[in-house]
Amino acid sequence: MTSFASPLWRKLQVYQVYGANTNVGKTVITTLLCKVAPRAGFLKPVSTGPSSEADDRHVKQFSPGTVTQCLYQFEEPVSPHIAATAHASQAPGDAEIVSSIHNILTRWAKDEAMSHAFVETAGGVHSPGPSGTSQADLYRPLRLPVVLVADFRLGGISSTIAAYESLLVRGYDVESVLVFEDAYYRNSDYLMDYFAARDIPLLALQRPPERLRRESLGNSSSDDAFQRDQQAMARYYEAVSRPSSGLGGLLSDLSVRHERRIGELETMASTAHKSIWYPFTQHNGLKPESLTVIDSARGDHFQVFQQPAVKADSSSSSVLGPVYDGSASWWTQGLGHGNPELALGAAYAAGRYGHVMFALGAHKPAIELAGLVLQHTANERLVRVFYSDNGSTAMEVAVKMALRASCQRYRWNAGTDEVEILGLKGSYHGDTIGTMDCSEPSTFNQKVEWYRGRGYWFDFPQVKMVRGSWTVVFPDQLAHAAHGNERESFSSLADIFNIEHREHSGFGRLYAYFIQQTLENLVKKQGRKFGALILEPLVLGAGGMLFVDPLFQHMLIKTVRQNPELIEPSLPIPGPSSSKSWTGLPIIFDEVFTGLYRFYHFSPSTFFPQASRPDIVANAKLLTGGLLPLSMTLASEDIFDAFSSSPAKEQALLHGHSYTAHPVGCHVARMSVTKMMEMERDGAWDQFKESWVDAGPGVATVDAAPRVTVWSIWPQNLLTALSNAASVESVWALGTVLSIVLCDHDSPGEPNFLPACPDSSFLSSRG
Amino acid sequence: MTSFASPLWRKLQVYQVYGANTNVGKTVITTLLCKVAPRAGFLKPVSTGPSSEADDRHVKQFSPGTVTQCLYQFEEPVSPHIAATAHASQAPGDAEIVSSIHNILTRWAKDEAMSHAFVETAGGVHSPGPSGTSQADLYRPLRLPVVLVADFRLGGISSTIAAYESLLVRGYDVESVLVFEDAYYRNSDYLMDYFAARDIPLLALQRPPERLRRESLGNSSSDDAFQRDQQAMARYYEAVSRPSSGLGGLLSDLSVRHERRIGELETMASTAHKSIWYPFTQHNGLKPESLTVIDSARGDHFQVFQQPAVKADSSSSSVLGPVYDGSASWWTQGLGHGNPELALGAAYAAGRYGHVMFALGAHKPAIELAGLVLQHTANERLVRVFYSDNGSTAMEVAVKMALRASCQRYRWNAGTDEVEILGLKGSYHGDTIGTMDCSEPSTFNQKVEWYRGRGYWFDFPQVKMVRGSWTVVFPDQLAHAAHGNERESFSSLADIFNIEHREHSGFGRLYAYFIQQTLENLVKKQGRKFGALILEPLVLGAGGMLFVDPLFQHMLIKTVRQNPELIEPSLPIPGPSSSKSWTGLPIIFDEVFTGLYRFYHFSPSTFFPQASRPDIVANAKLLTGGLLPLSMTLASEDIFDAFSSSPAKEQALLHGHSYTAHPVGCHVARMSVTKMMEMERDGAWDQFKESWVDAGPGVATVDAAPRVTVWSIWPQNLLTALSNAASVESVWALGTVLSIVLCDHDSPGEPNFLPACPDSSFLSSRG
Asked: Which molecular function GO terms apply here (chains A, B) (predicted)?
């Protein structure tokens, strides 16, 4: 999606004129606005019908001082999408139209004399543009302030309010409403109250004279009638554009609102700087100018306030500018900012349910979402969904689940025994204190007064592309066990993911041996008790974008599962009650960052064989497509059974937030997950697979839709080139993630990392 | 709000016919549907225009087998709200209309022969009913499945989609779309694709003949033309109602969708029972029948699936039934379920922003909400807002804030020192493990493996009405200190709240003495360190609706604040840097349950003098008016300074969820909080104050709007009556909360409690 500034200037006021319906008087009212404005520009992006009757000519005729322009003119008097079909070669695309409007407005903004610009739409708010896209969507990237022309006719109250609501759903601000007076239907009385309650001024204007030529005489042209029409219109315009008509007051209202909007943008940073306590932010030395004031967002871009660099030039420099959302807003975005379908979905669930209590309640959004995710997560162990609000609470729930199951089976007394967790160094599972305790002590979490790291964290081999070669780099302990071998090269990333093949190689045995020795030391020698194995599958996001050798995670799970005596040596080992039961330890996958198509798999578990898929999974972030907080913890039947083996209420899982499984979040999540599944099914991302096709023997095959399971939207040759740059230590890419580790010549042991993310909405916009 | 079942029967299919605009052919299309249906009922709730031309007569004439009825007929051919104004005495209220429709449909459902009922609206979706309420809102309590008649005319694509979106925002399900064909504008082609993508069938029908009488001959009546019109219409109806027209297929589609909906309702409980892990629920022995299947919600009521009791009778018994939301969905609801303004607000913020990252970002919803709450919380100490997702995370943040501040000032090493919190017995602050640790050990939290209660919890005096008398009941330790005095009676609840007066009474000194002795024992004798005082102001909700004597909380805060040596005896006591600085300990108010008008105060802090208002406050639940998870932690400047005294990043407050300050939540919260403030300002609740007016000397005065600060929507005489019932041990009420403690004759020391809540949306519906 092309990115440009949402048009906003200090001096030039720009409005988009939308109509509640067709034939409600948009052009007449816009002509009046042009006449009354000190100096206006009139822009008609798309016009249909004979050019001799085009709206820009009408404006030019009756408001001669106005600069007028029409971008695309189709002669047929039909909807632009039909006209454009007939002339497909002339038909502009959505991006072209929007970009052309932007260019013209930018030029007008540089004209000192120009005070107002009005961009007139065609038909109603949802009348299709040439490509068939509804105008309300087509023009949304500009998000111009709206002047809405209401419908004065019978039924006009309804069409006006419905049009207004459709604009709201797309995040437009309606700055004023204009409507013709009608003494019989009196729509303006009703609408005046309606909009006043919403702080939107409405102005009712005298109706223009009936046109003789069209209405009464049909198609037979009559020069005389035409002349009389023209004269009547001229008199009308003169009368209604007089100061007493209220149009002057309306323009003043608009100016006040324009100034207020800019004033808010100017002061928001200092207000925020005084009143907001920012997450993960050191406020010491923080200046208001460091804050990004976000006016709106669309697709992959924010529209942010631009501090004027030079005062003198400020009136014609854009108040807003686009900023690329490089981290996909903390890795939440799947379908792009300001997605109208998700917005409407949120409204539907809010209108149908609001929030309804989930204690023993069942509603369609929660039940359908649970079924959808359980079905497609491709892990036969997972049968239950527990809802909560964010990744951190989903992991709190996961920890409660796993510890209960293990303490129960191993007959540990959690009140007196210190039960810990197993994990990987650099892991991170959230900011609530219980989940912080699942991560090893570090500079950061040790500052939290109640933090007590409760676990053991393995160092692990990492996947990197180094100087064009896919490599697994061993940590010291493993290199030592491997007789000083520090790394292993592979011909492709797919080879590294060929877990079942590699398991029986020397490295599979090496990993297993290392893990077994470590556990024996911890449990038998040190007497420690571990109640869960917690892993972020494949990539540790918050820990600095570390790509774990999948074979290591596989061997860790397999070793724990096959050797329960490593966890509790003093008990007879119960055989698993079924192939879906947990053995050794409950395995938790924290898929908050890595789940739901981050790597173009529904779940990263599917990079692993069934035997090493988890007993418990936490999902969040991408779950709602980037709109709202919602999370789920999936669990296996025997984890669930650990809480329901007795009828005692206090044995239940004691967790549940007020807005558990809120219908708005569940409904939007179901829409978003379904949409991403459709994109996968329809091959929306196939173009990105090409550079990864010949990635490895036995895994990838070439045909119409290449069957590649390990790939990234970042092409392999880009990685190769990057990895050969002198300043780069290593790179890797998987799914949507690209990580570049720079050499730090000052402290070579501590490479800087630069995680990068493509389009936040690439899942759609690149599809 | 009257409550009744949302009409849904197994046999009778009921649809509401909405038009995209007026004059789109609703009546003709409904007549066709009636003709094709085996046996239909036609209901026109409100009709305007001459009764000789009324829609029900038209239907009767051309579909003679149809049962027709019109509820309210106004002769003027204008919008019902204008017609009703002229005949105010005849004009029905919204509730009456809806109730009448419900009654007729219920009667028809009992008629074995009846297969379909069509309720035809007037004009467009938002055309006002007699009271002026938009029809889409007026009829929403019924939430009938919708047949939408699209607009075939120029502009009709836009008006149809806008109407559809307005219906969605109110939680309606559109089950099919019908539209007249128009070869020139071809709206049906576009709309067919549009609705197919949304899984909604669309049927295009031949247009009826032009009416000679109205269109061509103006008002001059002509019997001949009338006759010809009638004959043409009759021929049209015959032709279009033939099986080949597609109407039969459409009815089949509708039947399939009707069956599917009921099928989903029937199976949802068993699906949920298999796949959902419910919060705070013991699943052992839980049957699917124990689950409440919620189809929709509105105001204070859910519409829930009714398991048919007797098979034989099931076709005419209602599939849905209303259930009162007695706990206001875990105390979240402020403005009622399915509130269309909040739904639209959610959509606006979603359309304008989606979610945008809040790390150093500033957006209007978050900044405005922060300012609004800081300003009106009436606590000069609070200047900063930290956003998170729910009450539990807000309290995790509060604990992190307070412990940092106290450890820093008292130079404790949190890594080695065990720093605890002070609180009250029975308190509860959330389900994440860090906040669980803030509550005393109990049957419940001790089952959580990582729970370690870290604190000391005071027993406290409770407020109750016992046998008609407002009483403060002391716990054993206090009664002992009070020389065996177990309780104190007051002439009114307001007297109990006269904190400044009572402070200097014997009981103020008694409380202070008791608190001081306890702290000296804990700190000096036992050597314990306390880093925060955490209180739920006035009422401990989750702990069993315990009403704390406000004087006790006041004295606790005052004692801690004035005697820092009680907290850390070994350090020289730094004087407070300003009157807004914390001394002794940071005081945290957990207002998650009690805040934002639960007690008809913006904040329960305002029941206390400024001197005992908190340094840190957590808000959630009612914050978004009952729609979405969002929470905030408010803090004072010197709490904030504890994290920004050094520029080190790791000294910052290390907390922040992915959806921190999500714009949808902040925007909806700002709307909801503003609405509640307006209701307070406009005296929306004044009627409830009356029974509390003469509640105490010096506090309450009687005038036009009684200035009562301590009151409840539950009248005092109800409390008196309840408290005198033999089975009742005690009662109390404050704000929206009524608590009744029953005598338990089996174990008299353990009274059962029965917390009760009034209308979940009383804030609006009783206003």
From this structure: adenosylmethionine-8-amino-7-oxononanoate transaminase activity; ATP binding; dethiobiotin synthase activity; magnesium ion binding; pyridoxal phosphate binding
Q: Write the pLDDT tens digit of every residue in B103-136.
A: 999 999 999 999 999 999 999 999 999 999 999 9
Q: Which of 466-505 (A) contact B at CB < 8 A?
A: none
Give CA A707 to chain center in angstroms: 27
Q: Are A362 and B291 a contacting pair at CB < 8 A?
A: yes
Instruction: Quote the crossing angle between the two packed helices B550-562 and B506-519, to the nearest 10°.
Output: 50
Per CATH, the number for A13-212+225-260 is 3.40.50.300
What distance in Å separates the CA atoms of residue B51 and residue B73, rounded to the nearest whole number?
7
Task: Please answer yes or no on whether B433 and A431 come within 8 Å at the CB atom.
Answer: no
Per-residue pLDDT at B746: 55
Distances (CA, A) of B312 to B10, B11, B309, B318: 12, 12, 9, 13
How confident is the model over B80-111, as pLDDT tens digits? Answer: 888 887 776 778 999 999 999 999 999 999 99
Nearest alpha-carbon partner for B674 in A197, A348, A355: A197
Window 340-369 of A: residues touching B by CB (8 A cutoff) are 340, 342-344, 346-364, 366-367
- pLDDT tens across A586-642, in order? 999 999 999 999 999 999 999 999 999 999 999 999 999 999 999 999 999 999 999
Q: Which residue has the higher pLDDT, A289 or A54?
A: A289
**CB–CB of B119/B30 below 8 Å?**
no
Q: Is it true that domain A340-681 has CATH number 3.40.50.150?
A: no
Predicted local confidence at residue A212, as pLDDT = 64
> CA–CA separation, A323 vs A4, rounded Å?
9
Q: Is A170 on the interface with B (CB under 8 A)?
A: yes
For residues B651 and B642, give the distance between their C-alpha atoms in angstroms, rounded to a whole number: 9
Check if the beta carbon of residue B59 is closer than 8 Å to that of residue B31: yes
State the ipTM, two decimals.
0.94
Q: Which of B349, B447, B629 lies at the smallest CB-CB distance from A654?
A: B447
Q: What's domain B13-260's architecture?
A: 3-Layer(aba) Sandwich (3.40)
A141/A299 Cα distance (integer angstroms): 9
B682: number of Cβ within 10 Å: 10
* CATH T-level assignment (fold) for domain B347-464+472-681: Aspartate Aminotransferase; domain 2 (3.40.640)
- Listed by start position, the domains of chain A span 13-212+225-260, 340-681, 686-765
* Alpha carbon of B227: minimum distance to chain A alpha carbons (Å): 27
* pLDDT at site A76: 83
CA distance A290 to chain B (A): 7
Partner-chain contact A662 B390, CB within 8 Å: no
The first and second tokens of residue A431, run together, are: 């900011």
Among A residues 56-85, those touching chain B with beta carbons less than 8 Å apart: 78-79, 81-82
Q: How far is A282 from chain B (nearest CA, A)?
A: 5
With beta carbons under 8 A apart, name residues in chain A contacting B351: 168-172, 338, 340, 343
Q: In one letter, which amino acid is A539?
A: V
Helix (H) / strand (E) element for B472: namely strand B469-473
Q: Answer whether B343 sits within 8 Å of A350, measured CB to CB.
A: yes
Window 173-192 of A, Cβ < 8 Å to B = 184-186, 190
What totals of helices (H) and strands (E) does chain A contain, helices first? Answer: 25, 26
Query: Which residue of B159, B165, B285 is in closest CB contact with A344?
Result: B165
Picking from B430, B454, B453, B432, the residue whose alpha carbon sits closest to that of residue B443 is B453
In the structure, what pLDDT confidence band is assigned to residue A78 with cuts at 50, 70 and 90? confident
Q: Which of residues 548-587 of B touch A (CB under 8 A)?
A: none
User: Which residue numbers in chain B have pLDDT < 70?
Assistant: 1-2, 88, 212-222, 309-314, 573-577, 694-708, 745-767
Asked if B302 is an interface residue toward chain A (Cβ–Cβ < 8 A), one would say yes
